């Protein structure tokens, strides 16, 4: 098992706390290094490092200036994640009005809800390998057309 199943640890933490448990009571996580490996072709492999500094350096080695762009990308992603988790994910979804709060209304442009992820990634990165790496999580969603999730 790689990191792809555990991208939202706070959701797991919250779920288990409802039953009086902590994650550490139920399983042990081991940080993988590299986190994962992408195969672009025969003898064309990218190991994705576990440590942030090493990841920024990997980006920089592939495309000049992309280490800093990755930091900007992640800062935007953090904002979107926090709004998504705090203002969206735990709502029951019974009415569109549940999502009409000030944070979402004020941040609708910052959330980029009217733009594709493909276009967003290309604002930051030009190298095809970095684009493929950044779009990697979307592969899981695209591979599951009938996927639903409830927490």
Q: What would you report as the Rg, rounded to the nearest angstrom?
A: 18 Å
Give the overall silhouette: flat
Q: Which strand order spans the largest sheet, edge to edge or round the barrel?
A: 1-2
Helix content: 40-55%
Helix/strand-derived category reads mainly alpha
Count the beta strands: 2
Q: Compute the average pLDDT.
A: 82
Q: Provide the β-strand percentage band.
A: 5-15%
- Poorly predicted ranges (pLDDT <50, ≥5 residues)? 141-151
N-to-C series of helices and strands: HHEEHHHHHH
Number of helix segments? Answer: 8
Summarize the main sheet: 2 strands, antiparallel
N- to C-terminal distance: 21 Å
What does this structure look like?
- The protein has helices at 9-17, 23-26, 52-62, 66-89, 102-106, 108-111, 117-124, 128-142; strands spanning 36-41, 44-48.
- A two-stranded antiparallel ribbon has the order 1-2.
- The protein has a domain at 63-142.
- The protein is flat.
- α3 (52-62) packs across α4 (66-89).
- The chain is mainly alpha-helical and 151 residues long.
- The chain contains eight helices and two strands; from the N terminus they run ααββαααααα.
List keywords for this structure.
8 helices; mainly alpha; 151 residues; two-stranded antiparallel ribbon; 7% strand; 2 strands; single chain; 53% helix
């Amino acid at each position: 098992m790689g990191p792809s199943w555990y991208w939202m640890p706070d959701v797991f933490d919250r779920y288990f706390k409802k039953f009086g448990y902590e994650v550490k009571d139920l399983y042990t996580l081991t940080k993988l290094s590299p986190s994962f490996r992408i195969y672009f072709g025969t003898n064309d492999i990218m190991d994705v490092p576990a440590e942030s500094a090493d990841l920024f350096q990997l980006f920089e080695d592939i495309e000049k200036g992309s280490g800093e762009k990755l930091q900007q990308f992640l800062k935007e992603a953090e904002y979107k994640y926090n709004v998504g988790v705090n203002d969206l994910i735990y709502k029951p979804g019974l009415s569109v009005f549940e999502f009409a709060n000030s944070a979402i209304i004020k941040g609708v442009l910052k959330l980029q809800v009217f733009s594709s992820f493909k276009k967003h990634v290309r604002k930051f990165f030009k190298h095809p390998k970095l684009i493929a790496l950044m779009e990697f999580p979307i592969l899981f969603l695209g591979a599951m057309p009938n996927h639903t999730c409830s927490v």
